[in-house]
Amino acid sequence: MSKTKISVFILFVLSYHGALSQSLVPSESKKELDELRLKLNEDGSHYIKATILNQVWFRFNESNSGTTVLGDPTTETFDIGLRRTRLQLYGQITDRVFFYLQFGQNNFNYLSGQNSTNNGNRKFQVFFHDALGEYRVFKGSDKLHLGGGLTITNGLSRFSQPSVGTIMSMDVPVFAQATVDQTDEFSRKLSIYARGQLGKLDYRIIISDPFPITSNGLAQLGIHPTNANFAWNNHSKQYQALLVWNFFDKESHVTPYMTGTYLGKKKVLNLEAGFITQPNATWTGDPAAITNNTISADATRKYYSMNLWSVALFYDAPVNTEKGTAINAYLGYFNTDYGTRYLRYNGIMNPANGTTTVGAPSGSYGNAFPMFGTGSVIYAQFGYLLKKNLLGEEHGTLMPYASYQGANYERLDKGMNVYSVGLNWFLKGHSSKLTLDYQLRPTYTVAGNNLLQDNALKSQVVMQYQFFF
Q1: E strands in 20-71
Q2: Is the CB of residue 257 less than 8 Å from the CB of residue 242?
C-alpha cells in the first residue's frame, strides 16, 4: 500500500472522528436510559432486554499475490462494509427460565452476492445467530444453568464465545472460533450444555451436533491424499468444555458470551483451560473416490479426530480508579489438531474473490492468511486505557493496543506471525467508539504440496465505527 494512500486514509479517519464526536454528543446534559429493558415484575428481576450492534469498516488492503476482484488483477483495494450488524433480545422471564435470541448479518461488503456463500444474492446473509433457552436449577443462584438450542456456548477459550460489542482490539482472534462456518453457523452450533459458577470456578460443558461441511454454502474441497479436510460422512457429536478460575472479581453469567474489556469497572484475573474434541471429523483419501458428490469405497481413506485444547491467562483491571486508567491483557497457548496437515485460509470480510495463482489454496486471495491449521498457536494482546475524559468531557478517551498471533502449522515451512497495533477512541465507552487498526500478515508461495513463506509482508489499515446499545 502506498504511503500517499495511507496518509489520505489517516486524514479521512481524523476528519471522520471529529465529525462523529460533534454529531453524537448532545449539546446539553439530559437524563439518558442506560439500556432498553422492560420490567416484567416490580423489582425488575424478571425482564426482557434488547440490544443493537453495528460495526462499520473503512479499509485499505494490500492484496496477496495473484488476487483478482471480479476477474480483474488487483494489487490493493479499498472497501466499505458492515463487519457485524446484530439485534439481540433476551430476558429472565421467570425465576428459573431465561431465553436469548440474536438476529443479524456479518461481513457485508460490495462483494456480497459475488462469492460462493450466497449464490449471487446480496440479501441472503441475515440469519438467526442464537436461539436458546435455559433453566436455572437452583433458584437465585448461578451454580447450574441447563440450556439448549442454537448457541455460541463453546469450549476451548473465552475468545471462542466473545462478546463482540466489548472486545478490546478491533476484531477477535477468529482462529479461536475453530470451526467457524465449516461445521457451525458463524461459530454457533446446535447444542445442549451445562454452565455455571461454583465459588471462583466458572464452567461450561457442551455436547454439540455439528452441521455437515457440505451444507456450509461453499465450494467443497472434497478429499485429498495427504491434507485433511472436514469429512462428508461418518457424522459424530462434538464434546467441549471450558473451565475458568476467577482470582478476583467474578464475571457475569447472564449470557454465555464473555466480555472483552470492562474498561476498568472490574478487577479480573482469570486462568482458563478448554477443549473441543470430535471423532471422525476430518479425512484423507483418493480424490477419485468422490464423483458427482457421491462417495465410493476407498481403501486408502482415513478418518481423524479433531482435538483442540488451550490454556490462557486473562487480566482486565483498573490501574488508577481516580484517573480511570486500566489494563487489558491476554496470553494463550492453543494446540490445534484437526488431522494431518489440515490448513485453512481465511480473510475477514475478504475484499477480493479470486486468484490467478495456479494451485493456490482455497480462499488464499485478498487479505487472507493461513488462520487455522494443525499445529499450535500463541495469541497475546495488551491494551492500556488512558485517563477518563482525556480529550474532554464530550470527547472521551483513548486506548492504544497491540496483538500478536504466532502459529506453527504442519503445512507451512516457517512460523506464521500476524501483528496488529491500534487505537480505540471511546466517545462513550463501547456504546460509541472508533478504532484504527494496522495489521501486517505473511504471504506464501505454493511449492508442490507445501507453502513457502515469502519475504514480504502485506498490510491492511482499517477504521471501524461501532455503536452498541
Answers
A1: 36-39, 47-62, 67-69
A2: no
For residue 179, the tally of other CB atoms under 10 A from its CB is 26
Q: What is the spatial distance between Cα 469 and Cα 457, in angstroms, rounded to a whole number?
A: 37
CATH of the domain at 434: 2.40.160.10
Structural domains of the chain, count: 1
pLDDT at residue 18 in the model: 47
Q: Which residue has the cell 458470551?
A: 257
Spatial CA neighbour of 317 closest among 409, 249, 389: 249
Closest CA to 156 of 99, 115, 206, 223: 206
As a whole number of angstroms, the distance between CA 300 and CA 221 comes to: 17
Judge whether 402 and 423 are in contact, CB under 8 Å: no
Radius of gyration of the chain from its Cα atoms, rounded to whole angstroms: 23
pLDDT tens digits along 54-93 = 999 999 999 999 999 999 999 999 999 999 999 999 999 9
pLDDT at 117: 60
Q: Say whether pLDDT at 23 is over 60.
A: no
Domain that holds residue 186: 3-26+34-468
For 337, the grid coordinates are: 489438531
